[in-house]
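Quick one, tokens below:
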């Protein structure tokens, strides 16, 4: 029998090579992330594959699974170890090779595979690895499935089965890209587009797709380099957005698009070089899509702007918006449950449901949606479409360090503190608290519409902080100082990755 995984092993020892290492903290709310090889070794990846196969059979799902890997120096090795474990547990593996996460999700439909296991650390820094998993297309695992997978793997409760198989699917990227183009409408004007890929996986696919769409493409950091020498491929990272902005201004491009490490997110910069945060892009797309699809319904995460509920155009069209838990698995599932037309996350995960898409997050499809929006407004630039939105002042996503073992407890204490302030009638940042939303962390709103959010990151040892004000930049900064002041009552909270 395969050995039970260990929570810690010392590298460069016989034990490290002879036993599986799987740190328990790697099992997140809706996917798995570890530092490799510090918290996970290759035998640990085999254990994960065995556990996933055991869970698939336990769920009673047909054991066909599509798998692929992102562009990192170690991702192919991780995938092969995962495949060994999945085969031993009786899964029939369909390997599409180097790919984007949405390409693997598409494979569930195109290859008729109920299950998916995508080897990727998404936007995490170099050194991280992980797996995004699902057994009910187009959804990915949520807390219940991840909790059960954790139990199976850490306890070594693996069930070996015959019937495991492997096949490599050649040329699958072409099938995926052809499908995206078949869903796009012909463009009436030629747009110049900066395609930024952060030297990650999207560089192999995004520029070619945009060229086939009819755009003039300005490539930016599309060459393969697993060290990510310029910046992490993360369209929420201001370093990446600033690089896109500089290139847009230097080349006179109509729009800049930035793709994350596994291509399921897309960041947007307008023709003036201004970064448009993804939630505002979502409002613009909601305006555009609700004209094409009357009675549209949308889902957004709690980090997103309040404009989804207050924008006059959306309100006039009777658009309904549901604010829900942050996380690609949560929003994806909620879009499916409500049969919403689309779901938008502030992180840049956009989920387009039928007839636009198949319900999963795809950065390339998001890019097509932005380009089509511009094409449908030939007399307007992206900055003009953005300027037509009501003005609000929003922060980027800011993440102070907080250990995985501590972060949920910190959020509970912060929530209790805000609730206590609300009950006592205490002001926050000089304004009265009018309400708390606690569906995912705590979103505290004040009398003038300014709000702040604190939640635990689902995939890194961090908290997540976002603030927005419809009043002024000064009010935004005041709210940030107030929220941060409450956070600093907890010594477990460390430095931010970026602030306003």
């Amino acid at each position: 029998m395969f050995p039970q995984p260990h929570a810690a092993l010392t590298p460069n020892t016989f034990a490290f090579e002879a036993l599986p290492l799987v740190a328990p903290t790697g099992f997140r709310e809706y996917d798995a992330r570890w530092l490799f090889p510090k918290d996970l070794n290759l035998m640990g990846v085999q254990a994960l594959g065995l556990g996933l196969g055991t869970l698939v059979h336990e769920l009673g799902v047909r054991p066909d699974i599509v798998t692929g890997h992102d562009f990192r120096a170690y991702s192919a090795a991780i995938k092969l170890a995962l495949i060994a474990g999945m085969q031993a547990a009786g899964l029939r593996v369909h390997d599409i090779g180097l790919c984007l996460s949405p390409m693997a999700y598409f494979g569930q439909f195109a290859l008729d595979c109920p299950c998916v296991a995508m080897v990727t650390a998404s936007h995490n820094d170099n050194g991280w690895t992980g797996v995004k998993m699902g057994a009910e297309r187009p959804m990915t695992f949520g807390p219940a499935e991840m909790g059960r997978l954790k139990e199976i793997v850490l306890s070594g409760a693996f069930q070996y089965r015959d019937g495991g198989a492997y096949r490599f699917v050649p040329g699958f990227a072409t099938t995926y890209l052809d499908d995206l183009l078949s869903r796009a409408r012909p463009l009436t004007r030629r747009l110049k587009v900066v395609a930024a890929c952060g030297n990650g996986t999207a560089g192999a696919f995004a520029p070619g797709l945009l060229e086939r769409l009819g755009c003039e493409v300005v490539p930016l950091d599309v060459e393969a380099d697993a060290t990510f020498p310029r910046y992490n491929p993360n369209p929420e990272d201001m370093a990446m957005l600033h690089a896109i902005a500089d290139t847009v201004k230097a080349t006179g491009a109509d729009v800049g698009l930035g793709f994350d490490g596994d291509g399921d997110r897309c960041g947007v910069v307008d023709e003036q070089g201004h970064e448009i945060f993804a939630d505002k892009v979502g409002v613009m797309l909601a305006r555009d899509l609700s004209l094409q699809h009357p009675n549209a319904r949308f889902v957004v995460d709690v980090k997103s702007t309040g404009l989804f509920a207050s924008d006059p155009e959306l309100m006039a069209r009777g658009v309904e918006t549901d604010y829900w838990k942050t996380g690609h698995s949560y929003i994806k599932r909620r879009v499916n449950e409500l049969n919403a037309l689309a779901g938008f996350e502030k992180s840049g995960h956009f989920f387009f449901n039928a007839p636009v898409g198949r319900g999963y997050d795809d950065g390339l499809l998001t890019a097509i949606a932005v380009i089509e929006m511009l094409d449908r407004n030939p007399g307007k630039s992206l900055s003009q479409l953005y300027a037509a939105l009501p003005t609000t002042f929003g922060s980027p996503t800011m993440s102070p360090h907080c250990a995985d073992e501590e972060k949920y407890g910190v959020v509970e204490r912060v929530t209790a503190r805000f609730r206590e302030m609300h009950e006592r009638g205490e002001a926050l940042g000089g304004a009265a608290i009018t309400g708390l939303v606690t569906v995912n962390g705590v979103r505290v709103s004040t009398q003038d519409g300014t709000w702040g959010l604190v939640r635990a990151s689902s995939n890194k040892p961090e908290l997540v902080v976002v603030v927005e004000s419809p009043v002024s930049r000064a009010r935004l900064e005041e709210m940030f100082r107030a929220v941060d002041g409450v956070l600093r009552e907890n010594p477990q909270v460390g430095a931010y990755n970026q602030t306003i």
